[in-house]
């Protein structure tokens, strides 16, 4: 964040004071709540666990354990795979909704936007439990399938599987993908449609060469906003995932809880952060190279 | 981030903000309410009626699902006046310097507590003082559907039975699942060598693909047993009592290796603000009426003989609860402190994640 120069018309000292006041909450949050906590995690990651709050003695053993035990690599890959599937599912299902909102919602647009955000009026946990009710052994889905004769007995294949985690998270994060894609599409000049058809493009060509590229910044920012928090999620996998979908967030949480090894938990957290930062950098590279922003 | 202007104003506002924050922090604990941190389910008002009559609306309760999680929460700076861990954890809490001794001369019904519990080695603080006042005891075993699991061998081995893969669950706590795995692996759960630990890990790995979930959420487990999604699960007595009350055909197994018997109780945190209220609270919970509710509602044992005397004999028989814990302990395994608790916890987490 940087701040250079002001606008004319406001007296210099008043403008300064106003600017300082505007920056204060952000500064406070950034330094005290974010940077300090991150520094603490980073510090802890290089300590050995002697049961005390801040650990004792500097060591690299935590990172050595993360790097050498194949379990942590496997769980990290599993988390990336699940978060990747969630992102894919969210973006693919969000795109048509955003398109509809941007071009075909007409006078119902504000109502539809309101409906998109409606699930957010309830607690996240409540939404997870709602999915539990849908997917459970004697739940809505199983009852419907047995009732219509498609299944002869309820299936165990819905709940406590990685698929349940993907479904639940994709639903929970849908608005985070819909809104940026909607904003991107909404800013598209409608005259581009006319220009495309003037130049002889059919519906599909228009979609592929005009609308889709135009929405890409929204798609990418939506994907990032969905992907980053889902990699570290631990509540949803523990509620609907079963043992096959333990994600890295659960492992980190366990180190700070039951396992009582904060330095190791911190090292895991730092490793995951590094992994996510690396991924974001790659995505940005790809984005620049293949030019969605022009 | 770069600042070019407004340093003075910045400082002034910063000071004001810090002042505002510290003033709200100051009043947070001055309301004279007892804070009590306990197992979910132990927060019910029936258990502390006389306290609530004497001090209406003066207890704040937070709950946990596992006392290892509770331990790290307290260690990290959550400071209730009273907490309710189980006996096997007392030495650990103590070692961390979290507790202050409780004076038994201020506990009215101390003498009514069964000697077995009063004389537990880790609770003794010397000089008529204790680190924990025992309140409840109970068993951990396999709860199974009698209609879906026909005449199983009375053994913990049911939780390793391939034919029920995906239809069983177990408790996500070190002093339950890994302890049983240790028994099944033939090692001493309370003191193990590294190679013992590896045997326990192998046993737990063998079990993982068969489990639909590892959880401390007993309500979900009970619902899944009732619906038939699960056919067997490791639970505590309370789940057996709850499901039998609903008419679900279940049986709480008596494994030939022995059920686990545990006891838990009140500890006072070192910097407890409301010590007098805490004593009143413990006293109210040791009244016969409180223990009677514990026995009748949950099927757990009370730590006092007076509570047992208040419960009709037929009720105890239907709960299969002997009125003296020593009777029970003849056939069960007492959950004492596990020396390798932390190593076991770490290993259990790895196994659950697929390692």
Write the layout of secondary structure elements.
The complex is a heterodimer of chains A (294) and B (355).
Chain A: H1 12-45, E1 47-48, E2 56-58, H2 61-68, H3 70-104, H4 109-117, H5 124-135, H6 140-147, H7 162-186, H8 191-198, H9 203-231, H10 235-241, H11 248-256, H12 262-289
Antiparallel strand pairs in A: 1-2
Helix pairs in contact in A: 1-12, 3-7, 3-9, 5-7, 5-10, 7-9, 7-10, 11-12
Chain B: H1 7-27, E1 34-39, H2 49-54, E2 59-64, H3 67-75, E3 82-83, H4 90-95, E4 99-100, E5 102-103, H5 115-118, E6 124-126, E7 129-130, E8 133-145, E9 168-171, H6 177-185, H7 194-207, E10 211-215, H8 218-227, E11 232-236, H9 237-245, E12 250-252, E13 260-269, H10 275-285, H11 288-298, E14 301-302, H12 305-309, H13 313-319, H14 325-329, E15 333-334, H15 341-353
Parallel strand pairs in B: 1-2, 1-3, 9-10, 9-11, 13-15
Antiparallel strand pairs in B: 3-13, 4-13, 5-7, 6-7, 8-11, 8-12, 8-13, 8-14
Please explain how this structure is put together.
The complex is a heterodimer of chains A (294) and B (355). Helix content of chain A is 72%, strand content 2%. Chain A has 294 residues and is mainly alpha-helical. Chain A has two domains: 1-45, no CATH class; 65-289, MetI-like fold. Chain A has a two-stranded antiparallel ribbon with strand order 1-2. The longest helix of chain A has 35 residues, at 70-104. Chain A starts with 11 loop residues before the first helix and ends in a 5-residue tail after the last helix. Residues 1-6 of chain A have low confidence and may be disordered. Chain B is α/β, with parallel strands linked by helices. Chain B has two domains: 34-137 and 263-323, 3-Layer(aba) Sandwich (D-Maltodextrin-Binding Protein, domain 2); 138-260 and 336-353, D-Maltodextrin-Binding Protein, domain 2. Chain B is 39% helix and 19% strand. Chain B has 15 helices and 15 strands. In chain B, helix 8 (218-227) crosses helix 9 (237-245). Chain B is globular, with a radius of gyration of 23 Å. Chain B starts with 6 loop residues before the first helix and ends with a helix. Mean pLDDT of chain B is 90; it is low at 1-30.
């Amino acid at each position: 964040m940087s701040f250079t120069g002001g606008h004319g018309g406001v007296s210099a000292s008043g403008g300064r004071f106003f600017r300082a006041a505007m920056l204060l909450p952000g500064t406070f949050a950034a330094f005290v709540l974010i940077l300090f906590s991150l520094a603490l995690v980073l510090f802890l990651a290089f300590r050995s666990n002697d049961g005390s709050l801040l650990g004792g003695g500097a060591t690299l053993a935590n990172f050595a354990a993360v790097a050498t035990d194949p379990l942590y690599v496997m769980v990290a890959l599993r988390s990336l795979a699940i978060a990747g599937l969630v992102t894919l599912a969210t973006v693919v299902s969000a795109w048509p909704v955003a398109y509809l909102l941007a071009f075909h919602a007409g006078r119902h647009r504000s109502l539809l936007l309101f409906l998109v955000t409606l699930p957010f009026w309830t607690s996240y946990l409540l939404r997870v439990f709602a999915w539990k009710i849908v997917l459970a052994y004697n739940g809505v889905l199983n009852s419907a399938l047995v009732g219509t004769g498609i299944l002869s007995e309820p299936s165990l294949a819905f709940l406590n599987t990685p698929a349940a985690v993907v479904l639940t998270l994709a639903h929970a994060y849908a608005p985070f993908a819909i809104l940026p894609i909607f904003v991107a599409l909404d800013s598209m000049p409608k005259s581009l449609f006319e220009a495309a058809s003037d130049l002889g493009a059919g519906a599909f060509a228009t979609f592929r060469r005009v609308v889709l590229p135009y929405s890409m910044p929204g798609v990418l920012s939506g994907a990032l906003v969905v992907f980053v928090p889902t990699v570290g999620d631990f509540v949803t996998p523990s509620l609907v995932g079963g043992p096959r979908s333990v994600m890295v967030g659960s492992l980190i949480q366990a180190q700070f809880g039951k396992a009582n090894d904060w330095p190791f938990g911190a090292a895991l957290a730092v490793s995951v952060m590094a992994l996510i930062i690396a991924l974001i950098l790659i995505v940005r590279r790809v984005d620049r190279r293949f030019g969605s922003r022009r | 981030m770069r600042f070019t202007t407004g340093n003075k104003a910045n400082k002034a506002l910063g000071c004001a903000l810090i002042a505002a924050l510290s003033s709200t922090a100051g009043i947070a604990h001055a309301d004279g309410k007892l804070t009590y941190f306990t197992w979910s389910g132990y927060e019910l008002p029936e258990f502390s009626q006389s306290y609530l009559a004497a001090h209406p609306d003066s207890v704040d309760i937070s709950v946990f699902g596992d006392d290892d999680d509770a331990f790290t929460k307290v260690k990290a700076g959550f400071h209730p006046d009273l907490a309710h861990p189980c006996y096997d954890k007392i030495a650990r809490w103590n070692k961390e310097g979290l507790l202050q001794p409780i004076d038994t001369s201020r506990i009215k019904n101390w003498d009514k507590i069964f000697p077995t519990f009063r004389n537990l080695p880790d609770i003794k603080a010397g000089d008529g003082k204790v680190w924990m006042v025992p309140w409840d005891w109970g068993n951990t075993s396999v709860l199974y559907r009698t209609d879906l699991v026909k005449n199983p061998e009375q053994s913990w081995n049911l939780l390793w039975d391939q034919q029920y893969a995906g239809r069983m669950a177990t408790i996500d706590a070190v002093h339950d699942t890994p302890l049983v795995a240790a028994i099944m692996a033939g090692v001493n759960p309370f003191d193990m060598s590294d190679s013992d630990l590896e045997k326990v890990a192998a046993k737990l790995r063998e079990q993982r693909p068969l489990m639909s979930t590892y959880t401390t959420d007993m309500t979900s487990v009970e619902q899944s047993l009732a619906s038939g999604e699960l056919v067997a699960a490791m639970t505590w007595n309370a789940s057996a009592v709850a499901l039998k009350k609903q008419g679900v055909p279940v049986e709480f197994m008596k494994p030939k290796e022995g059920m686990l018997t545990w006891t838990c109780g009140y500890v006072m945190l070192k910097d407890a603000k409301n010590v007098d209220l805490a004593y009143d609270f413990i006293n109210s919970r040791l009244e016969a009426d409180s223990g009677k509710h514990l026995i009748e509602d949950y099927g757990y044992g009370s730590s006092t003989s007076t509570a047992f005397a208040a419960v009709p004999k037929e009720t105890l028989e239907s709960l299969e609860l002997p009125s003296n814990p020593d009777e029970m302990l003849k056939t069960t395994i007492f959950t004492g402190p596990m020396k390798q608790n932390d190593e076991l916890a770490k290993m259990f987490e790895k196994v659950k994640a697929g390692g």
